[in-house]
Amino acid sequence: MALSDIAAGVEVTTRQRDRGVAAVDETDAPLSERLVPVADDLPCSAATAATLVEAYAAGRSVGDAGRAAGVAPVTAAKTLHLLGEQVTPVGPTGREVVADWLAGDLSRSDAIALAGVSEREFALAVYVQTHEPLPAARDAVEGALTTEERDPLGETMSDVGELL
User: Fold this and answer.
1) Could you tell me the pTM of the whole model?
2) Predicted confidence (pLDDT) per residue in 3-37, tens digit
3) What DSSP element (H or E) covers 24?
4) Which of 9, 12, 82, 130 has the greatest CB tally within 10 Å of its CB?
5) CA-derived radius of gyration, the chain
6) Is residue 100 scored above 90 in pLDDT?
7) Which one-letter DSSP state was computed for residue 159?
């Protein structure tokens, strides 16, 4: 098959129609109202979760954001996890240890020792591993938890166009 066979029937137009971008933006509603549909599945109220998200998005730690919202740090971590944030107290090896404990291959004391965490951190790691984030909750906080990542050295690097 030649290139002319592939290109047969392809037309080139001189003008293009701008159709715009289709977007649905429900972020006009306050965060606490957007969280109401999932409030029964969260460990705290929708208003408390909204306060927690706002404090966490402002750069506070999970514990500080929980205290600002009036909940325990563990409750704050559970809530943020259900909202789609990565808040596990263990790394990849720790997650494997938790999985082994859940499968019954390790005793709890051995698993805690191997994971190198406290009882409370282990309990949170088990919660994170046994509870999936809520898709509706993730959608409700979309935009509230995302931060613009910026490369601090980005302005010092040259662009590909500058090399030509």
Assistant:
1) 0.70
2) 888 778 777 766 666 665 544 545 567 888 999 99
3) none
4) 82
5) 24
6) yes
7) P
